[in-house]
């Protein structure tokens, strides 16, 4: 009898592995289909990373609704700065019109949509003329266990730490910076330096009063045309890691994949 039970258990385990493997394989193929569709419709230069979250996958297909989808397009062309990482997170994605193969131009209802433009410190530094630019979250958040950030990890928009060597100064300095969005279309990133920082976790380089305005001006910038994927209006902006990030969150959206990229 014991051998029978062991045999049955082994068969059940084998079937579970087969079913799980088939489910995983189907999800990988569906992710490939979506990645190809985003590249095609949004006019990207490369396949974006796509993840369809939630297990098991097969029930999501049967009900024509994905629980959660992530799309990430690193190195996407972005006006003025050259390249940026474009991200979107889609919750409760209705596939009724698009189907799981995402036919061109299909309407896709989404319960909650998050989209982000993530500007790396290297590209932002080139735009500002500070080749060694480093970006950090405000010190109070770096040292705060609660983080003080949004769910996606965006810092507060005030008191970011920019460190680098301004043109014509020759010394590496740290500056406190506020970021904001402006313009009628809310697509212009404003970078406003507010003061020189010294002490721990900074360049610890004081700036003479006669040079202070020139140094602060070197960190000042205005970066227009920062359109979010799917055209969302920005709701949060700040730092994440060594990047500046702009995020928009909206409820009850209906989009097409073409809207992921620039118009």
Automatic annotation (TrEMBL):
<dbReference type="InterPro" id="IPR021373">
    <property type="entry name" value="DUF2993"/>
</dbReference>
<dbReference type="Pfam" id="PF11209">
    <property type="entry name" value="LmeA"/>
</dbReference>
<feature type="compositionally biased region" description="Polar residues">
    <location>
        <begin position="143"/>
        <end position="155"/>
    </location>
</feature>
<protein>
    <submittedName>
        <fullName>Mannan chain length control protein LmeA</fullName>
    </submittedName>
</protein>
<feature type="region of interest" description="Disordered">
    <location>
        <begin position="142"/>
        <end position="161"/>
    </location>
</feature>
């Amino acid at each position: 009898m014991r051998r029978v039970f062991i045999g049955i258990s082994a068969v059940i385990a084998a079937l579970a592995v087969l079913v799980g493997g088939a489910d995983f394989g189907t999800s990988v193929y569906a992710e490939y289909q979506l990645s190809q569709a985003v590249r095609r419709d949004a006019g990207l230069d490369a396949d974006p990373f796509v993840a369809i979250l939630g297990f098991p996958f097969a029930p999501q297909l049967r009900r024509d609704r994905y629980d959660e989808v992530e799309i990430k397009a690193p190195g996407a062309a972005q006006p003025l700065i050259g390249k940026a990482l474009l991200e979107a997170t889609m919750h409760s994605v209705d596939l009724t019109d698009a189907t799981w193969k995402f036919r061109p131009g299909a309407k896709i209802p989404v319960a909650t949509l998050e989209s982000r433009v993530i500007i790396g410190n290297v590209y932002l530094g080139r735009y500002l003329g500070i080749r060694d630019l480093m970006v950090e979250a405000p010190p109070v958040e770096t040292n705060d266990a609660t983080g003080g950030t949004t769910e996606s990890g965006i810092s507060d928009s005030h008191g970011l730490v920019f460190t680098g060597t301004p043109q014509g100064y020759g010394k590496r300095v740290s500056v406190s910076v506020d970021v904001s969005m402006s313009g009628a279309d809310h697509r212009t990133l404003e970078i406003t330096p507010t003061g020189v920082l010294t002490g721990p976790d900074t360049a610890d380089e004081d700036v003479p009063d006669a040079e202070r305005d020139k140094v602060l001006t070197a960190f000042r910038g205005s970066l227009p045309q920062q359109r979010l994927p799917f055209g969302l209006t920005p709701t949060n902006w700040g730092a994440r890691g060594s990047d500046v990030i702009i995020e928009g969150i909206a409820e009850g959206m209906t989009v097409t994949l073409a809207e992921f990229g620039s118009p």
